[in-house]
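Q: Could you fold this chain for me?
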Amino acid sequence: TSPGKFCSECGAPLKPKTECPTCGAKVGPGAKFCPECGGKLA
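A: Sure. Below is the predicted structure, expressed as structure tokens.
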């Protein structure tokens, strides 16, 4: 289930995910691959 584009508590827009799902490294917006582990980002 997708969390949505807005906060369910206050309605503020949510920022795009900026963490690698494989290793947890911080990833810049718009990146397609993780700079730490090379994992493909969704």
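A (continued): The chain has no helices and no strands.
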